[in-house]
């Protein structure tokens, strides 16, 4: 039995209406379902296999690339001439990070210590740890600046001590020793008779404190009661603030621990985090959208005010005493040594700094720091944190080792900590938190489109059926045949 067009049109209208209704319901309910799924996945909870593993063990490639500023004219510097440097590197180290001593608390926080180890990756490096470079001797030139205001006899005694232990103003040593420590009779002497004066009790090296160490005890919010607070720091080493700086705002411990951020970020969001290595909180700002390995991201970068001095940016006055913009004085948290942090090659710093050293060439692509983050989840997809370590050097009367050195903030090294999500972790992340929500979002429009198409088809089918019936009633052929049938019927009677 054939189904009439009218019946089919009614079926299409019903089905189309249901599809439109379902699509409209998804428009309102879909985002709620997606957001609820994101919330469940990003809170710090051992039951969340993917996100908890990423948070606890950081199962992604992470590297530290170190560049040395090799001094080519040390003798001329001692005579007062401008330093000339040549960049050497990168010397790349694979970085293993993991969290231990994890303790969950009743107030929806969790405490932990994050440990780190470094392993040299020769295949990724330009050179080997046996490469020899020349950099300022922090024990001599740093200590000389620290003792500048001490009585003259004390400065003479310090100079005599340097001579006794054969300490020169510049070090020429293999990269591996400069990184992880070298034997020094002066260091042994100081640790024996003045314990606690130096940051290390063993060998002296630029990163001697870093390897097989931790960044202190962080206590962060789990987000189980408020997802907007997830990963935000509640305390560090039991402190709500530090005392390195001169203002309450600068001493505040703000933001996260620098690995993940709360979800649902917008272009107006910022990315605050506390860095124990820099002894302060920092904040990145939105720059542009992008795509990282198939995942939509927002790129956040350091604002130009990050290392600005108090004169150029008054809120930074608390980080002073300041020099030119572009330098952060970290002496207060580095045993009062005259150490400064900046962007590599003095990128975005006062141009005066570039005039004091030959061999620097800053640009954003190579020396700007950034984090590409998936805004819906707050998970970084690609990270590149680049910082430079500088030492203030100058001639100090009474300490002959300093010669006639002109006062200059001398670049020593710069390093880049980089990491990105890849492999199985990326595939799982993309499927669970990118593809499935995207499919659900598209489904609502597909159902609405199919429903409207069904309704439109039903209307067209109904109109077509009515026109067919109308044409049949007014067809002359049909009327003549009807008359013949009528006459035949009369004759038969």
From TrEMBL:
InterPro entries: CD36/SCARB1/SNMP1 (IPR005428), CD36_fam (IPR002159). Residues 470-493 are annotated as: Disordered. Pfam families: CD36. Keywords: Cell membrane, Disulfide bond, Glycoprotein, Membrane, Receptor, Transmembrane, Transmembrane helix. The keyword Transferase does not apply. GO terms for molecular function: lipid binding; low-density lipoprotein particle binding; scavenger receptor activity. It is a multi-pass membrane protein. It is found in: Cell membrane; Membrane, Caveola. Its main location: membrane. The chain crosses the membrane at residues 12-34, 442-463. One of its GO terms (cellular component) is cytoplasm. One of its GO terms (biological process) is cholesterol import. Belongs to the CD36 family. PANTHER family: SCAVENGER RECEPTOR CLASS B MEMBER 1, SCAVENGER RECEPTOR CLASS B TYPE-1 SR-B1. This is Scavenger receptor class B member 1. It comes from Sinocyclocheilus rhinocerous.
């Amino acid at each position: 039995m054939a189904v009439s067009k009218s019946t089919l049109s009614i079926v299409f209208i019903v089905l189309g209406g249901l599809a439109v209704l379902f699509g409209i319901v998804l428009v309102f309910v879909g985002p709620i379902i997606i957001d609820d799924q994101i919330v469940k996945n990003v809170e710090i909870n051992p039951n969340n296999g993917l996100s908890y593993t990423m948070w606890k063990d950081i199962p992604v490639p992470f590297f530290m690339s170190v560049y040395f500023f090799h001094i080519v004219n040390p003798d001329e510097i001692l005579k007062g001439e401008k330093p000339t440097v040549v960049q050497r590197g990168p010397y790349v180290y694979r970085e293993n990070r993991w969290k231990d001593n994890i303790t969950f608390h009743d107030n929806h926080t969790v405490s932990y210590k994050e440990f780190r180890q470094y392993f040299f990756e020769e295949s990724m490096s330009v050179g080997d740890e046996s490469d020899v470079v020349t950099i300022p001797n922090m024990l001599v030139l740093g200590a000389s600046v620290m003792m500048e205001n001490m009585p003259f006899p004390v400065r003479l005694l310090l100079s005599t001590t340097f001579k006794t232990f054969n300490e020169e103003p510049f070090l020429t040593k293999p990269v591996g020793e400069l990184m992880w420590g070298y034997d020094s009779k002066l260091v042994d002497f100081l640790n024996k008779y003045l314990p606690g004066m130096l940051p290390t009790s063993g060998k002296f090296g630029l990163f001697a404190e870093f390897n097989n160490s931790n960044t202190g005890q962080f206590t962060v919010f789990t987000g189980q009661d408020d997802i907007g607070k997830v990963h935000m720091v509640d305390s560090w080493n039991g402190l709500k603030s530090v005392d390195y700086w001169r203002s309450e705002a600068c001493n505040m411990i703000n933001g996260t621990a620098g690995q993940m951020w709360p979800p649902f970020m917008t272009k107006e969001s910022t990315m605050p985090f506390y860095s124990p290595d820099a002894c302060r909180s920092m904040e990145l700002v939105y720059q542009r959208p992008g795509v990282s390995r198939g995942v939509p991201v927002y790129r956040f970068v350091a604002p130009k005010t990050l290392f600005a001095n108090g004169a150029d940016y008054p809120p930074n006055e608390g980080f002073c005493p300041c020099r030119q913009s572009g330098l952060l004085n970290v002496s207060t948290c580095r045993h009062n040594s005259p150490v400064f942090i900046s962007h590599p090659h003095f990128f975005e710093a006062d141009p005066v700094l570039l005039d004091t050293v030959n061999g620097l060439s800053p640009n954003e692509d190579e020396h700007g720091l950034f984090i590409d983050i998936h805004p819906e989840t707050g998970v970084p997809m690609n990270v590149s944190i680049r910082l430079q370590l500088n030492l203030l050097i100058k001639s100090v009367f009474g300490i002959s080792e300093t010669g006639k050195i002109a006062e200059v903030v001398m670049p020593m090294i710069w390093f880049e900590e980089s990491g990105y999500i890849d492999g199985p972790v990326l595939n799982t992340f993309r499927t669970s938190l990118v593809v499935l929500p995207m499919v659900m979002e598209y489904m609502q429009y597909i159902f609405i489109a199919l429903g409207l198409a069904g309704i439109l088809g039903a209307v067209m089918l109904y109109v077509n059926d009515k026109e067919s019936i109308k044409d049949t009633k007014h067809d002359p052929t049909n009327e003549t045949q009807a008359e013949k049938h009528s006459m035949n019927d009369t004759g038969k009677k």
